[in-house]
Amino acid sequence: MVNVSIARRYARALLDVATETGRADAVSEQLSTFARLVADNRELADILLNPAYTREQRLRVVEALIKASGTVEPALVNTLRLLVDRNRLAYLPDIARLYRDMADAQAGRLRGHVTSAIPLSKDTLQKLSGTLQTLTQRNVVLESRVDPNVLGGVAAQVGSLLYDGTLRTQLEQMRRELKQR
Length: 181
Hints:
Blueprint: H1 4-20, H2 24-40, H3 42-49, H4 55-68, H5 74-85, H6 92-107, E1 109-116, H7 122-136, E2 139-146, E3 154-158, E4 161-164, H8 167-180
Parallel strand pairs: 1-2
Antiparallel strand pairs: 1-3, 3-4
């Protein structure tokens, strides 16, 4: 089990440095990309997380990833090197998640998900985001999901709030009401 307090310390330290340089959002994107890359590639994860590989071997792989990624924020490069040096690359997914949450809180953003039966246009997503911003009084960043089981309408979850305007939910509500009669 990963100790979240350790991941939180790395995320906070990285956010402090990134905020000083005004690059917190760029670091967030790059950190999430690195974490996703490791999570999606079993062979890469094995090299980076397996204690059978030496620290130098892991560092060479991380350096190659940094070089292949092009321009990587210096704060992130230093953090990745530090994680290799301290044998804490296993914390990378938690660091990325906590960093994003802290950067969002610092910027006054909320993240949310919109589920619909068909893909939503950018214009529709922007309008929905604007409506949710009005309701929550915070900047809302939406991720769109498609679920054919929704039938129609949309469901939006922002933080712990769920706004469900799906046809499926309305039909289920009608069915419950008819059973009670």
